[in-house]
Give the backbone structure.
Amino acid sequence: MLKVCHLYPDLLNLYGDRGNVIAFTQRCGWRDIPTELIEVNIGEKIDFREMDFLFLGGGSDREQNIMSADLLLRKESLKEAIEEGLVVLAICGGYQMLGQYYLTQEGKKSQD
C-alpha cells in the first residue's frame, strides 16, 4: 500500500492542485498499486515517516501565511522523513514553503 499525504488540501489548492493527487492515485490504480490518501490540515497530527509520497500544492500569500506557522512546527519531522526517503511533489507556493524563506508584498518571511 502506497501512503499518499496531501498536506493542507483545504488551503493549497490554488490551481486545482487536488487534480494532481487524483491523477497520481488513479495512475497508481491503473498499475495495480494500491494507495491510501491521507489529507492533513492545520493542527492535524501526521507522522511523515509513515508516508511514501507527499504532495504540497500552491496557494496565495493569504493561504501561505495561514499555514506557514503550522508547517514550521512540522519542519524537523518533515526534514527527517525526506532524508529517510519520503518523496515530495511541491507545486508553486508549496515549493516556496520548503525553502529557507519566501517573499511577500510585506517582505521576507523566514521559514527557519
In short: The helical segments are 18-30, 61-83, 93-97. The mean pLDDT is 89.
